[in-house]
Amino acid sequence: MNKKKLVLSAMAVLATVSLAACSSKSSSKSSGTGNGSSLKLSTSYNNTSATDKTADEKSTLKVAEANDSPFQGISDPVLASNAEDSDVFAPGGGDSLFNVDKNYKIIDGGLANQRIDKKAKTVTITLRSNAKWSNGMDVTAKDIEYAYEVVANKNTTSQQYSSDFNAIKGMAAYHAGKAKTISGITYPDGEKGNKVVIHLSQVSPSMKFSGNSFIWGTVEPYEYIKNVPIAKLASSAQVRKDPIFIGPYKLDKVVEGESTTWSPNKYYYGKKAQIKHISINVVSSNNIVKAIQSKKYDITASGLGSTSYKQLKDVKGYAKTGQPALSYGYFGFNVGHFDTKTGKNVMDKNSKMANKNLRQAMMYALNLDQVYKKFGNGITWRANTLIPPIFQKYWDSSAAGYKLNIKKANKLLDEAGYKKRDGSKWRSDPNGKKLVIHYGAMTGNSTSAAEYQDYLQQWHKVGLDVQFTGGKTMEMNSFYTTLQAPKQNKIDVYSGAWSVSSEPTPTQLYGEDAPYNMGHFVSAKNTKLMQEMNSNKAWNDKYRTKVFKEWQNYMNEQAAVAPDYFAYGWSPVNHRVKGYDISPANTEFWSNMSLTSSKLQ
């Protein structure tokens, strides 16, 4: 199983591949306990082999991006939404501002340093003196600020905005199109200086960590893109064809939807790249196993799925690495629309999936424990909340989630008036009208197909006529294009997955004004709980933990977005690769790698 994810791009991507968007806790070994996974893999491959004479200037690190669709090709982390785009442009460094420790806490030493002043309610970001883009341009204070403009512009195609950004003074006015600038972001040394001060109405405890939903974590090359309207930036040559980066590698070539190739960036401020060439190619989930067995690739750009693990766990010439994934799968229900005039999601009380009993019944009808026992291979297991267990402090391990309970599912449907009438095989809605529920699912491998069929069969058992949207699974880009429309009636319930932030606040996913809130669930309590996660009281971590657990149980009860699976991210590493380490603290992931020979082992 390898359901592809949307990604909080600047949130989840540091200077590493997206497999590294997980936590390593206190050691380089994943615990494998207390989170549903039985695996205990190392986050690094300790290769002590000597480098032979064949490893020369022509040697190429070969990376596979396992995906069943072409990548979209949006290199800008502010504008990218699919994890695949983040994967194929990862050697460029993700344009990330900060270094982090093993727990994703921001530390000094990256492109910039950060200082939080609780009393003054400011965050000061100071760039290093030798910060340059891969074309030799200086990185400036304006490059920090411009990222916020691209995120929040009224005409942006970015999906990253949420109400948390309104803590920045002047941001709400800019987002609404009532101001041309963001008044709360200032430049003590001018736009071409190296310092930005962000003035806030509140300072949140989450700001100490990368991936928080208040302080954006990447830069934009303002001088390079300033003449492109923000609304057209995602389709521009500066983003699609000739992007520039701040990381250890510069882009040599992109073949649309298929591959990217890289060579060392001579302007990089950090450790110089040791490998002279990198190629990243899309490989379908049906072909990835054979490709690794045939030794066509050194590593994968993101964690592989459970089916691949079963087939590759003993493959010769490769080490296995991994850790609990900073991601989760979920079932989303379409309960509203996005109002483009107000910029807010709106619940539609008359929508097909508006009835909570119906949503809960559909979840109780599923036998997810059995599905993942059969297909999970220790890599995936039934999720019990919408906070993955990698966040051990905030994840509610005691939450039940949705275990199979056909009796309860039928009772909920009966009580809500979804009944079989006139001898019909299927239940009709409470008004006696025919009920057909359209299920959206992305095309994947044979395991994914078997899982989807199981879901349909289980829903049919409780008398619900659930059918694939359009009669079949959907290509990934088409799937998300449909869901991200402001209003759509083609998909009623869907299987999705998030590659999430390294800070667990879910405002950007489920906030009232979050573009990523594709099911459009909104409630006063949901909004209040998410605000409380970062209130002044939340500096007390016991209180913050309590709020996170209350939110998880509230979302489970509402079942507008319901947990599907948690996962363990793993990747094969060829024995010729040296210095491979996906722990979060290894922010020089690409620079630390080298090759011991010209050919895969």
From TrEMBL:
Q: Which domain of life is it from?
A: Bacteria
Which InterPro entries does the record match to this protein?
Answer: Peptide/Ni-bd, SBP_5, SBP_5_dom
Segments of this protein annotated with the region Disordered: 24-58
| Cleaved signal peptide residues | 1-20
Q: Name one GO biological process term.
A: peptide transport
Which UniProt keywords are listed?
A: Signal, Transport
All residue ranges annotated as the Solute-binding protein family domain in the record: 110-511
Q: Which GO terms describe its cellular component?
A: ATP-binding cassette (ABC) transporter complex; periplasmic space
Coiled coil stretches, renumbered: none
Q: What is this protein called?
A: Peptide ABC transporter substrate-binding protein
List the source organism. Levilactobacillus koreensis
